[in-house]
Amino acid sequence: MKHARHVEEIERVLEGNPTGRDSFVSASWRRCVELYGMDPMRADPAHIVTEAELREHRKQAEWMIAAARSGLQSLFRQVAGQNYVLLLTDAKGVCVDFFGDDLFTEDLRSAGLYLGSNWSEDLAGTCGVGACIITQAPVTVHQDDHFGNAHTALSCTAAPIFDSLGQLAAVLDISLLRSPAPKTSQSLAMSLVTTAARRVEMANLMAESPRDWVLRLSSSPEFLDVDPEVAVRLDGSGRVLGYTSAARRLFPEGGAILGHRIDEVLGVSVDDLPDLMRDRPTEERVIETRDGGALFGHAIAPKAPRQALPRMRSGGALAGLSGGDPAMARLLDQAERLAPGTVPLLIAGETGTGKTRLARAIHMTSKAQGFLSLDCAGLSAAALGAACQALAGPSTLLLRRIEDLAPETATALAGLLDRQPDLRPLSTCCLEPARVALPRTLFHRLAGAVLSVPPLRMRRDLGWLMERHLRRHAADAVRLSPSARAELMARSWPGNIRELEQVLDVAAALCDGPVIDLHDLPAPVAPSPLAPGPLASGPLAPPAAAAGESLEQVLAACEWNMARAARRLGVNRSTILRRIRAAGLQPPG
Ligand SMILES: Nc1ncnc2c1ncn2[C@@H]1O[C@H](COP(=O)(O)OP(=O)(O)OP(=O)(O)O)[C@@H](O)[C@H]1O
Fold first, then answer.
1. Hey, is 178 helix, strand or coil?
2. Where are the transmembrane segments (predicted)?
């Protein structure tokens, strides 16, 4: 009787008469008859794939099963004892993971609620998983919403799980063998399954993103850090590399999300992310949305990549100069091999990169006993000769800033090196070696090999350098807050390690407690582009500075990005906003 009424209702739907069913159910019934040629009277057994096929489906979905497992376990614990069964299917509808009560194994198996069952709509008819795959949205297919007679006792609530590129990856289904008649009895199941699917997407995105910024968002400050609603993975320029499906609501409907900059849809850019880290007060982490609303943000900074590095053959002075930066590791390996010989070395690099420190470490690793360090600026031929007379036996002569050597001192130096063959010159320069204006005869007496020290902005061990400096130089175990650390990691450091040390020393002196916070950091200071000296030209020069530019020019150069403009002018964001208002400036277009 019940079956006959079900078949009649299907017929009415096929004739185009509404029967009060959800529209996705009616649409699915029509497909079952018109597209798949199914008969609702037939009670076809569940479709179970072969063991070999199941192995293949599980292999394909391995990463999703791993990401979903703990979410499924905790969901199953929540519904334990209420006869629910949980299925995780792949995007084709094949059940690849399963949680059910062992007491009902046989019942569940015969109802198709088991590993390997295929719940795609074209095989199983209207069902939770199948409808979820077609609509790509959470659905409840309750009792006689099901098309086939075999399933009309079941109630299935299913939610889609998307991968971080927005593709359907899996379906999470929670089903009951027997349920109360009203469909609304499944509202709790719907809420549980959508929450679990969101958490699986979140776990998957986080696992994929150790090298990128992740911005997590929530409409409630209380849940921001523990159970956010949305997450996006961003590259260094703020472009979206991945997202959880709830992020779609931030972007224009139907438009692409991947590759778009986050500041197109939210009042936040990649430069603001340090301000949104967990150590900042939640109520300050407010972000404006496109529609004038607000969300709370939690930014998670990228972790430094791990790389296989050349191994230093010995420890000592050289090994202590790097915390795992690959370019430094290669440089130190070369330095270690060259140190014991007598080849003169020219050490090139921007100011403050550690050329002098490297030269001293090379000397300490060499066989030379005597050591003399001279600044070339203002060095006379007479002073050079007098200083070197004091050296006896194999000695290192460190000539700092060789580009500043006066021509007559250069001539005297060439003669001196000929007369004192035990002297091994180590020279430093802030210019590209090819731009150093020295007589050719002297150049080749100084530059037997060139060692190039990388600028700090190119080094990957910046975090290590910061921590080591604080450990060694700051009192009372001072440490950086995560946002202060992220802010320093994002700076360009034109003054290199020297500038870094000074910033940390100032911050350590200014901070009140044991933690250096964002507001304790001195703003970056850059020399005027007009400042004299080798830095203003030459390929080793750091990026140009902002000195002398008007607020409007700086804003234009920073594409009206407040955080970047603030950093460039050495003030905070609120100062920039205040100045913009005071000057009546408006962003273009
Ligand atoms: N590898 C390093 N680890 C830690 N600190 C370093 C390292 N290299 C340099 N420093 C520190 O950075 C500061 C600048 O280093 P150094 O004087 O060697 O730079 P430089 O390149 O010779 O600078 P300049 O060319 O301006 O004379 C010093 O205080 C030094 O102790």
1. coil
2. none
Residue extent(s) of CATH 3.30.450.40 domains in the chain? 2-199
Q: Which residues contact 408 (CB under 8 A, 6 or more apart)?
A: 380, 381
How many angstroms separate the alpha carbon of residue 54 from the centre of ligand 1?
A: 60
Sheet containing 395-400, strands listed edge to edge, beginning at the edge strand earlier in sequence: 370-375, 395-400, 423-429, 345-348, 449-452
The CATH label, of 3.90.1170.10, 3.40.50.300, 2.60.40.60, 3.90.45.10, for the domain at 316-454 is 3.40.50.300
Report how far ligand 1's centroid is from the alpha carbon of 351 (Å): 8
Can you point out the beta strands (E) in 109-248? 139-142, 155-162, 168-176, 213-218, 230-234, 240-243
Sheet holding 294-300, edge to edge: 240-243, 230-234, 213-218, 294-300, 286-288
Residues with CB under 6 Å of ligand 1 are 321, 349, 351-357, 400, 428, 430, 465, 497-498, 501
pLDDT on residue 567: 66
Q: Which residue spans of the chain are classified as CATH 3.40.50.300?
A: 316-454
Distance (Å) from CA 496 to ligand 1 centroid:
8
> If the chain, 589 residues long, is cut into consecutive pieces of 10 residues, what is the mean pLDDT of each piece?
83 92 95 92 83 90 84 84 88 92 75 87 94 97 88 90 94 88 86 94 88 91 90 88 94 88 88 83 85 90 63 72 91 95 96 96 92 95 93 93 94 94 96 89 93 92 90 80 84 92 93 88 69 42 50 76 70 70 75
Separation of CA 518 and ligand 1 centre (Å)? 25
Confidence (pLDDT) at 530? 45
Which amino acid would we find at residue 468? Answer: R
- State the pTM of this model: 0.62
The string of DSSP letters for 379-424 reads --HHHHHHHHHT--SSEEEEEE-GGG--HHHHHHHHHHHHH-TTEE
CA distance 370 to 86: 76
User: How far apart are the C-alpha atoms of 423 and 394, rounded to whole Å?
Assistant: 6
Residues 6+ apart with CB under 8 A from 359: 345, 347, 396, 398, 426, 428
Q: Helices H, strands E: what count in the chain?
A: 20, 17
- Nearest CA-CA partner of 235 in 250, 214, 255: 214
CB 63 within 8 A of CB 56: no
CB 367 within 8 A of CB 342: no
List the one residue out of 396, 462, 436 whose CA is nearest residue 540. 436
| Reported CATH class of domain 2-199 | alpha beta
What's the longest Cα–Cα distance across the chain? 117
How far, in Å, CA of 351 to CA of 433, rounded?
14
CB 241 within 8 A of CB 235: yes
Which residue among 398, 498, 505 has the greatest number of ligand 1 atoms within 8 angstroms of its CB, and so is best to mutate?
Answer: 498
